[in-house]
Amino acid sequence: MLSSPIEWGVVAAVALLVFGPKKFPELGRALGQGIGNFKKAINEAQEQVTAGIDDVEKKDAKAKGDAKADKADDDAPQSSASESQTSDGGKEKASSSG
């Protein structure tokens, strides 16, 4: 690519000859705005990806937490004041109002 200042100078001189002194500042401004918009779009996309990853990690952590809670419920004693046995032997949570 263009790594040395001499190469940049040659490119700038050719651009000045091709586009003329009146268009040259406009081209530079447009190029700068284009680069700025590109950087902004890249940052926004990166933020969206990061937010999406965070959401997935939270859902995974919640799912793992729910699985651990379910396992803890299975290990807990079967009778409790807030649960009642149904006729088929399954547990049914008693709803409390208030």
Report on the structure:
- It is a single chain.
- This protein has 98 residues and is mainly alpha-helical.
- It has one helix at 5-75, and strands at residues 83-85, 91-93.
- The longest helix is centred in the middle third of the chain and has 71 residues, at 5-75.
Largest sheet: 2 strands, antiparallel
Structural class by secondary-structure content: mainly alpha
Shape: rod-shaped
User: Order of strands side by side in the largest beta sheet?
Assistant: 1-2
**Could you give the distance between the termini?**
71 Å
Beta-strand content = 5-15%
| Fraction of helical residues | over 70%
Q: How many helical elements?
A: 1
Series of H and E elements: HEE
CA-based gyration radius = 33 Å
Mean pLDDT: 79
Q: Please mark out the parts with pLDDT under 50 across 5 or more consecutive residues, or reply none.
A: 80-84
How many strands? 2
Provide tags for this entry.
two-stranded antiparallel sheet; 1 helix; 98 residues; mainly alpha
Give a quick precis of the structure:
The protein is mainly alpha-helical and 98 residues long. It contains one helix and two strands.
Topology:
Elements lengths: L4 H71 L7 E3 L5 E3 L5
Antiparallel strand pairs: 1-2
